[in-house]
Amino acid sequence: MAGLDAAGAVIMRRRMTREGLIKFVSKLPQCVVAMEACCGAHFLARTFQSHGHSVRLMSPEYVQPYVKAQKTDDRDAEAIAEAATRPTMRLVTPKSEAQLDLQILHRARARLVAERTRLTNQLRAVLLERGIILPQRRGPLIRRLDDLMGGDLPISARMLRLLRDLRDEWAELDRRIGAYDDELMAMTREDDLAQRLVTVPGIGAINATALVAAVGDASAFAKGRDLAAWLGLTPRQHSTGGKTKMLGISKRGNRYLRTQLIHGARAAMRHFVEKQTAMGVWLRNLLARAHPNVVVVALAAKLARVAWAILRRGDVYQSQEASI
Question: Which pLDDT tens digit goes with each residue over 201-224?
Fold first, then answer.
């Protein structure tokens, strides 16, 4: 760790364990404690805040420019302390324990969904080698598989037992994912922020709880930050010769939340297009000149900004009728 005085001069350098750091900081007078937003930083931030300190968490990519010469622990600590003094530094809001619990629930569910997808692909590949083609969609695939296994499959007895094991494994994964979905639905009904978010078409229980876990009450965006840009949904720009060229989206920030918002936008796009609202008119005009996938990402960015406004203002979504 490194300590700076009011003038920015280094007045302290120490090496200590995590437990030693907590004891040391608890005995300090109230001051600013700066850290990189890495694993365990939110726990330390809550601990230091309980002792009256002001905590500043920063993304490691914003600290890197302040590292002098080759990276060492001492130089890294000085860079963190110096970066925390910058008035334009973007800070990470420490997450509460409830937010972290909700994020872990989403990560566990995402892992099970990925395992189920891999297992589904394996089932299709095994039977495709035997000349049996299964549907790609999950529901029809399992119904077709059950029908096949109830009859006479042109496969060996050993392969049939293997397919039954894979089918049982798939059913167990589906049951566990359903249990997580039920828990997220229950949390949505109990959380006021999530209840307001689900009023937006394309934002269901999964997206609403993921937004609450990542953003909370939007206090991190109180200074005009753009939630869509934070999620990497806005296009990158390249300027040369006085001309600006729009490129693809930046894909920065929370990949999981960005993916969920895009899936939600794809599901809700038909609903918006069919309505005589300002959103529907905007989408129809955009679909006339851009690829549907581009339109889906643009709609996801707009839904992110709508969600940001709902979190900031404490309001619910209200569609606006198009002026004719």
Answer: 899 999 999 999 988 766 655 455
What does the pLDDT look like over 123-140, one tens digit per residue?
Answer: 888 888 888 888 888 888
Beta bridge partners of 249: 235
pTM over 0.70: yes
Which pairs count as long-range contacts for 33-41, CB under 8 Å and 24+ apart, including other chains? 34/58, 34/80, 34/81, 34/83, 34/84, 35/80, 36/60, 36/63, 36/80, 37/92, 41/94
Contact 112, 176 (CB under 8 A): yes
Rounded to 5 degrees, φ, ψ at 209 are -70, -35
Would you list the domain boundaries of the chain? 2-92, 97-190, 194-313
Residue 137: DSSP 8-state: S
CA of residue 38 relative to chain centroid, distance? 16
Identity of the residue numbered 193? L
Could you give the C-alpha distances from 42 to 88, 93, 227, in angstroms and in order?
Answer: 22, 9, 21
Distances in Å between the Cα of 69 and the Cα atoms of 64, 65, 76, 265 are 11, 10, 10, 45
